């Protein structure tokens, strides 16, 4: 049987529905669904909706006093609402709110008519519907990827493979769920639609396709102005230079009226933002991001693509393979136009995005800003899937499956605090690579302490002979120390730091050390449990591991400091412990 017969030639949008359902099953049964999705930057993108429809205040003064079940808004919005001429604005662009609006309005109507929900714009019903909006636009983007690939005559089976790759082997999984209020899944959808409409126009020349492309381009810019860069991919979406130049000549001569209408449509959409600014401040044009800007002399192209911190090809390596496949596919066909125009556009986009003053874009999973351009990489890669060799395509599909496995695990790791959101490096990356157990949560987030110049206020050693009689498999008490209130008066700083140097041999990293401070009556003041792997950062370790426990010094006043050891493996050993409490 020919592989193209495994799927029908026309599946409608059933395949996108099935892919999204598969994604939802994965969320519900492995990665985990988040109740709170209007968070961080995403809250800024979303805030326009409650400001306009509930609080009637586009200067966001309501933020100063509003406290809802999930937020203290004044504290949460630090950095979101700068002031221009003494008037608060939202520094983020309104486009994400515009495309989320239908879902917000449905949520608001439900909240108004159901006493179970609070109609404050931020309660759980609004969180759910923003999640639904992200799923809808995920579907929307996958749908237009299929339409694009069908224009390129890619067989349906391989379209499904590429759709699966774009979702399950990338950061898109995270930004279509846990951070559903961020702009990326929405930009992903509209960039895919724009690419489809431009390709369609290049083939049909119909004014309808031109107008729709202009409308979608306006929305892309309104969501995130930097994504106006998608314009540089237009030559790639044409089959050759002659086709492009013919359309450009026609638009500026015979079809000048159509071009004027198209530009006007795009400008009308983009003009929504200056109108909002005028309502907020009386000015049509603002620098809402203040000193946050691009510096094209300080670009970080290599870091942006290959660093362990956020590298696009490190956290979504499937796209490096897909770009290589696209180059191979077009070069085999001697289609130098497609190869050069795509690679040139890709270089321009990555150069610009890597020139942002924070090139790694804060706390994020991988190079999140590249999500917006995934569909264009998929179109480029599709050239390899129109070659005749099915064996080659099957091998590539298996590779994509492997990348998806890694990406699904890393998405889980990111949401479970196993990956560091902002400061990943090579050591941290390989320390937790494909690790999912709870003991790895927070491992790479641990503080490092410089104790030079810090005074030791208390010390005690527990030699092997003592530990041999007290440490058994299971739950063992190492020591209980009573600190009178007078003791902590020697501390000059506000915090105490317990440092435990433990000479140990442990297996599988499951053993734990617990430090507790209780009142004399047994009620708890402080509790912290750490697995022994947190010292060396690896399993099956023999040597000295160091654990730190930081708390306010007042916790020690008339308190009982207790140290417990949970031994999970018969052949694990604790040979020596040194306890030091620093004035920190």
Q: Strand tally, please?
A: 10
Strand content: 5-15%
Major β-sheet strand ordering: 3-10-5-8
State Rg: 28 Å
Number of domains: 2
Termini, distance in Å? 71 Å
Overall mean pLDDT stands at 92
Counting helices, strands and paired strands, the structural category is alpha+beta
Are there runs of 5+ residues with pLDDT below 50, and where? 1-6
The biggest sheet, with number of strands, parallel, antiparallel or mixed sense and barrel status, is: 4 strands, antiparallel
| Secondary structure: helix percent | 40-55%
Considering the chains and any ligands shown, give keywords for the structure.
14% strand; Jelly Rolls; 46% helix; 4-stranded antiparallel sheet; 584 residues; 2 domains; single chain; alpha+beta; 22 helices
Describe the structure.
- With 584 residues, the chain is of the alpha+beta class.
- The protein has two domains: 8-33 and 129-415, no CATH class; 456-583, Sandwich (Jelly Rolls).
- Helices cover 46% and strands 14% of the residues.
- The chain has a four-stranded antiparallel β-sheet. It has a four-stranded antiparallel β-sheet with strand order 4-9-6-7, with no helix packed on it. A two-stranded antiparallel ribbon has the order 1-2.
- Strand 6 (512-518) and strand 7 form a beta hairpin.
- The protein starts with 13 loop residues before the first helix and ends with a strand.
């Amino acid at each position: 049987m020919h592989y193209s017969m495994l799927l029908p030639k026309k599946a409608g949008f059933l395949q996108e529905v099935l892919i999204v359902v598969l994604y939802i099953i994965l969320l519900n049964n492995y990665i985990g669904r988040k109740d709170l999705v209007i968070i961080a930057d995403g809250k800024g993108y979303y805030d326009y909706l409650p400001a306009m429809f509930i609080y009637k205040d586009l200067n966001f003064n309501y933020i100063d006093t509003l406290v809802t079940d999930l937020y203290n808004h004044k504290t949460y919005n630090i950095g979101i609402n700068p002031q221009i001429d003494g008037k608060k604005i939202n520094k983020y662009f309104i486009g994400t709110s515009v495309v989320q609006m239908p879902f917000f309005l449905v949520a608001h109507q439900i909240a108004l008519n159901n006493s179970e929900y609070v109609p404050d714009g931020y309660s759980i019903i609004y969180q759910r519907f923003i999640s639904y909006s992200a799923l809808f636009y995920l579907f929307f983007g996958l749908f237009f990827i299929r339409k694009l690939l069908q224009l390129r005559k890619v067989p349906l089976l391989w379209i499904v493979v590429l759709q699966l790759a774009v979702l399950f082997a990338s950061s898109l999984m995270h930004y279509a769920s846990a951070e559903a209020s961020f702009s990326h899944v929405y930009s992903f959808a509209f960039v895919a639609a724009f690419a489809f409409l431009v390709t369609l126009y290049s083939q049909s020349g119909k004014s309808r396709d031109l107008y729709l492309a202009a409308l979608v381009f306006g929305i892309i810019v309104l969501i995130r102005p930097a994504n106006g860069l998608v314009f540089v991919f237009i030559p790639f979406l044409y089959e050759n230079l002659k086709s492009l130049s013919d359309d450009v000549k026609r638009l500026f001569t015979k079809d000048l009226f159509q071009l004027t209408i198209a530009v006007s449509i795009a400008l009308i959409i983009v003009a929504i933002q200056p109108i909002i600014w005028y309502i907020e401040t009386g000015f049509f044009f603002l620098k809402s991001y203040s000193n946050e800007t691009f510096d094209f002399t300080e670009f970080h192209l290599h870091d942006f693509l290959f660093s362990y911190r956020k590298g696009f090809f490190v956290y979504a390596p499937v796209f490096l393979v897909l770009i290589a496949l696209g180059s191979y596919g077009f070069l085999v066909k001697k289609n130098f136009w497609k190869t050069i125009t795509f690679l040139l556009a890709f270089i321009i986009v990555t150069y610009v995005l890597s020139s942002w003053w924070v090139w790694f874009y804060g706390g994020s999973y991988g190079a999140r800003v590249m999500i917006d351009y995934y569909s264009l990489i998929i179109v480029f890669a599709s050239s390899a899937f129109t070659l005749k060799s099915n064996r080659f395509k099957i091998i590539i599909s298996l590779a994509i499956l492997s990348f998806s496995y890694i990406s699904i695990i890393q998405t889980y790791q990111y949401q479970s605090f196993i990956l560091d959101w902002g400061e990943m490096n090579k050591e941290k990356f390989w320390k937790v690579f494909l690790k999912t157990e709870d003991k790895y949560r927070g491992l790479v987030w641990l503080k490092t302490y410089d104790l030079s110049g810090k005074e030791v206020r208390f010390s005690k050693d527990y030699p092997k002979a003592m530990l041999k009689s007290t440490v058994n498999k299971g739950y063992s008490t190492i020591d209980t120390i009573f600190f009178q209130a007078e003791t902590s008066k020697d501390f000059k700083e506000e915090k105490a730091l317990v440092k435990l140097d433990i000479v140990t041999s442990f297996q599988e990293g499951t053993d734990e050390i617990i430090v507790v401070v209780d009142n004399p009556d047994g009620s708890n003041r402080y509790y912290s449990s750490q697995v022994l792997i947190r010292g060396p950062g690896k399993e099956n370790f023999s040597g000295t591991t160091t654990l730190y426990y930081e708390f306010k010094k007042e916790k020690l006043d008339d308190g009982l400091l207790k140290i417990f050891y949970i031994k999970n493996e018969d052949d694990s050993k604790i040979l020596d412990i040194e306890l030091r409490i620093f004035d920190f």
